[in-house]
Backbone:
């Protein structure tokens, strides 16, 4: 049912300057794999094979990563390191990739509206690559696809955050409608509220399933917090009609848009790698 996944990837990544001056933040590696590849593989696990990527100036490395490098393939053919390309080869062969550019950085809502030309009139997933998620049994997006099949409306992934951190997230409030799966029918959503104004401590993270009507709502959404077109504001309009559910997902999430989260993710995946597979950093 969900065939396409949209990746907003036009942001500047200013928290990682100077590393992101010439390198897209989505291409920063956790061990030997860039952040955006983790996201694409999560989408593949959820049964999605059409990747739509909203890029901007200086983001050509993303397109090159998901393309064949004939010179590199030739140089490594028959060599001991040829197997290191197997993972990305499988991704490239299993998926299609389409791209469009966001000419102005006007917020997440604007980035998603820019991606309409790649999505068309169908429900779709959204992954923010700098929110890196992990669950040993089933990926977060695969969990959300099951929720969508049941409720047939927009689905947002949420987690509890410390009350003093609500000003970093979109915050939801709503009625718990499925205690076993931690699903809420959203009644209100606020973008980055001060702790004293937050309706709860349930924060939206970078995983969404959206219905195509979001595009019409976004076209009529005025600039909000920070002068940007906020996806949270558009989703609020649909939530007023009972068309948004929030899902407290199973698994871990790392905020790799921050240095602390990036380091935490690197250490976590390094230890996972040592436990379950040979460490690619030790290959020669």
Residues:
């Amino acid at each position: 049912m969900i065939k396409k996944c949209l990746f907003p990837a036009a942001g500047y990544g200013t928290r990682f300057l100077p590393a992101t001056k010439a390198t897209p933040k989505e291409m920063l590696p956790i061990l030997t794999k860039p952040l955006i590849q983790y996201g694409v593989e999560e989408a593949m696990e959820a049964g999605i094979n059409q990747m739509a990527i909203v890029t901007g100036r200086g983001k050509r490395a993303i397109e090159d990563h998901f393309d064949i490098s004939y010179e590199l393939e030739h140089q490594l053919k028959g060599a001991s390191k040829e197997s290191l390309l197997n993972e990305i080869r499988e991704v490239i062969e299993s998926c299609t990739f389409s791209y469009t550019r966001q000419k102005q950085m006007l917020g997440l809502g604007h980035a998603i509206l820019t991606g309409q030309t790649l999505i068309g009139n169908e429900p779709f997933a959204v992954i923010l690559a700098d929110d890196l998620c992990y669950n040993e049994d089933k990926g977060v997006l695969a969990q959300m696809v099951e929720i969508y099949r049941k409720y047939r409306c927009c689905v947002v992934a949420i987690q509890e955050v410390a009350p003093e951190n609500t000003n970093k997230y979109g915050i939801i409030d709503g009625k718990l409608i499925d205690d076993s799966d931690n699903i809420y029918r959203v009644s209100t959503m606020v973008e980055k509220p001060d702790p004293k104004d937050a309706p709860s401590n349930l924060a939206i993270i970078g995983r969404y399933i959206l219905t195509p009507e979001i595009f019409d709502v976004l076209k009529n959404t005025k600039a909000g917090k920070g002068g940007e077109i906020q996806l949270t504001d558009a989703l609020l309009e649909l939530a007023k009609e009972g068309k948004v559910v929030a899902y407290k997902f199973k698994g871990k999430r790392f905020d790799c848009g921050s240095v602390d989260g990036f380091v935490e993710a690197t250490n976590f995946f390094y230890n996972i790698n040592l436990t379950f597979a040979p460490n690619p950093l030790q290959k020669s």
User: Anything to note?
Assistant: The two ends are 42 Å apart (CA to CA). The chain is about 30% helix and 25% strand. Residues 278-284 have pLDDT under 50 and may be disordered. The first helix runs from residue 35 to 45.
